[in-house]
Model the fold of this input.
Amino acid sequence: MRQFVLLILAAATLAAQTQQTNIEDHQAMQGTMDPGSCPLHTQHMNAQAASEDQRLSEMNGRGTRAMGFDQTKTTHHFRTLDDGGVIEVTVNGPSDAANLAAIRRHFSKIAREFAQGNFTAPFMTHAEMPPGAETMRNSKGKISYRYEELPQGARVRISTADPEALHAVHEFFAYQIREHHTGDLDHQH
Done:
């Protein structure tokens, strides 16, 4: 079973890398070419958007399984701060008690796991290890993770005074902001 899971994760990673390479190639071409001169420009852009939508949908499905709450009924935020950042998830519906309880269970667990250097949940959600996570794992004694309940969700406050660990936390947050399409700023200094 473990080999099957590793095979699936390897295939998902390869597909994501190939898709990202195609997107990067197209973006590089955009800089050197007038969009009006490409007869297939609209088709390329539509295919890129559809591919991104599919990638987000797949990530949300993995996230629901890894985190235990419906990703489409919740809102993620990754707020980068001078000494680290805050991961925050809230329910979209104020009467959504099931997802609220699941968010709080997950975030309480995540604060403990991250403090132990365990980044399995982000790996399961994204089908790859997020940038910065390995350094965060290796710097676990230099980073603080504090769980806090919110009226409609929960958050984990991550802080460090170590410059290398701080850079890793900011890399981790920048990746999460992109992947979850949160619209949060990469750095709030």
